[in-house]
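User: Can you fold this complex?
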Amino acid sequence: MNGIIGGEIIAAKQHNNLEGKSQFLQTGRWERGWGFLWKSKAEYISESLVEKLLMLSAVVSIMALLLISVFIFSRGVPLIAKVGLGDFLFSLEWRPTQGVFGIGAMFIGSLVLTLASLVWAVPLGLLTAVFMAEIAPPPLIRIMTCMVNLLAGIPSVVYGFFGLVIIVPLIRNYLGGTGMSVLAGAVILGIMILPTIINISQDAIQAVPREYKESSLALGASHYQTIGRLILPAASSGIITAVVLAMGRAIGETMAVVMVTGNAPIIPDNLLAPLRTMTSNIVLEMGYAAGDHQAALFATGAILFIFILLLNLVLNSIRRAGKRYAGN
Amino acid sequence: MPGTRMGEKALTCLLCLSALIIVGILLAVVGYIVYKGLAMINLDFIMQAPKRAGKEGGISSTIVGTLYLTVLSLAIATPLGVGTAIHLEEYAHKESYFAFLVKLTAETLAAIPSIMYGLFGFVFFVIYLKLGWSIWSGSLTLAIMVLPTITRTAQEAILSVPREYRENSLALGASKWQTIRKIVIPAAVPGIVTGIILSLGRAIGETAAVLLTAGTSLGMPLSPADPARSMSVHLYMLAMEGLSMERAFGTAFLIIILVLFINYLANRSMSLLSHSGG
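Assistant: Here's the predicted assembly.
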């Protein structure tokens, strides 16, 4: 009984497959019943060898991710266990040479800097995305796309250098302090995440079905009413995706931040104070750290890693929710 | 409703203004570095070895180091990435657990910040595999970093090859691998090349990961077992330690020019893709 039902299901599946896409190419399991395809046993062997090799190359990236997780956690977690997660994460004392490891200031530094850069880059990026998707004529869109891509292609160390020679002196001369500050970091980091925000929200806005827009306009709504009440809400899951991705990029950014924020491991009390992020902490001290100090830097990396994985989870659930919404 | 009219006009102005700001930012960054860096550029700067920790002389060894690192990392990552893409698109069951796992891995790898790759490369390649601070360690780390980009673009390129091509080839008696090798891959080349170009840009600009894995030695790297300093690492060291701002500008200028050129190439190959794919 079971067997017959099973067979029927398989037959139905095969029928579906043959109807829609050729099962042949889809499943890639030619050997089942397609043995006549091979001219010789040698050809069969070489064909399956190639298949195994290709599979192996796919396994490499899985192995890489596994190794990354294992090596970073195995170096970092013992130290977190020794210090205690609460103390490690929230203590403000970072005196690595005396064996005191608390990354509280850096943890808060990363969050503060990320928020400060999102605060101005998200509105500006979103407005630009609306401009590109709804207002600009096609030739202008092409030019703008080119420019945004170029902005995304400039390496972070160049942005850091630009911040160091332009933004930091500007702040020092006009606002006071040393210039190496939260503000300088937020300006540079904001510039760096703009392309992510623009590209992804522009895609999201353009993916809103034309019919929505046409019906709204036909009902007498103005273009901006349509954008504000209909297009942006319909694109909201894409826009949130853009913001979360930008957040991930901002938290992980290292070189540009190291070069302009002054790197003092204290909690900044105003925009002109220096700060140190978790990423800066790693790159600044890795060169000479040893023993527990080095382990503490790996532990910082492990915390960062968990952060990124959590953001990825959020991203996936937004995407799923977006798909459900679109499906309805 | 004149009030609404005014409001709409103001909104249009606001949108145009934000686009202008973006253009302004780009022009400011590129323009300033080109303006200040151009004065530094001459044959000596490119051809001479750095002296006194980079305070004097040129940047020849860092150019060679960058070249070594990018070429080697792409040579490692391209076959792996394209192989993965072929496996996913041509062999694996779309719904299989393995395909899902590979996709999830690629997404996660793409989200990991470069400093994490640096940490991993340092503990795994430099220490565990005893490769030391070397071009090998740097290239292997960079290769893992650019792998998701190459895989994804190759996947899209392979997916866009019409199914009829494959069916015709198979109907003519070609085997599956022959079909992939002689029909699918050639048709997907523009997409694969785009992925390689994009990765090239990323590898040239990468600093944190290279700093921790290839070291900061200013000597001329001869073999891949030697340590090396890339141009981006050099720029970082020059600027952070205040060694020579003119030389930092010169290095930043060369990096920007390379990035501009790579961007142009990527645009060209992408437009090639859309023409052939249509």
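Chain A touches chain B through 88 residues (CB under 8 Å). The beta strands of chain A are 94-95, 100-101.
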